[in-house]
Specification:
2 domains, 6-stranded antiparallel beta sheet, 4 helices
């Protein structure tokens, strides 16, 4: 188990979202529910959206940009293909892929001391994706769709503001 972890907060990443629908009868009813959500643009009220693979939501801000991005993605795809029956809990889930979301990222560090962790993070800023397993904080799966230059720049910028605050763990 790693001693130190690098946490970078409030990063925008492309990820997949999921939400449990209220419909329990038919897929047709689930489709109608999603259509109502899109028409009213009230997609968060009464629903617990989360990043796919996360027990806790993982989403830092539920704002109008997120609403617009979700609705746009739903409108681009066949809703029917993104609604899945969860036989275990007898619910339908809606999955929406490749949405920009404000979340927190974490990566285990290799260092055994805080001093070494600080040096490691400084070096990591040259190429944060090389040799590091980034994932969304508190999620079982990695969940990140794109490791691109924009994400790299966000990580480096946040670390640059307060490197020490980004390192968690105990000596």
């Amino acid at each position: 188990m790693e001693k130190f972890k690098l946490k970078v907060r409030n990063v925008h990443v492309y990820t997949n979202l999921e939400v449990r629908l209220k419909s329990r009868t038919t897929k047709e009813e689930a489709n109608k529910e999603v259509e109502r959500m899109v028409e009213t643009k009230d997609i968060f009220k009464g629903y617990e959206w989360k990043i796919e693979g996360c027990e806790e939501g993982g989403i830092n801000s539920f704002n109008s940009d997120l609403i617009e991005n979700i609705i746009e993605r739903i409108n681009q795809e066949e809703t029917d293909e993104n609604i899945f029956w969860d036989g275990f809990t007898a619910h339908y889930d809606l999955n929406v892929s490749h949405i920009p979301v404000n979340t927190n990222l974490e990566a285990p560090l290799k260092s055994d001391t805080r001093e070494d962790a600080i040096k490691e993070v400084k070096a990591l800023c040259e190429n944060p994706f090389k040799g590091y397993e980034w994932k969304i904080e508190n999620c079982d799966e990695n969940g990140i769709n794109e490791f691109n230059e924009d994400l790299k720049n966000q990580i480096v910028q946040i670390i640059g503001k307060d490197l020490v605050a980004c390192i968690e763990g105990n000596d």
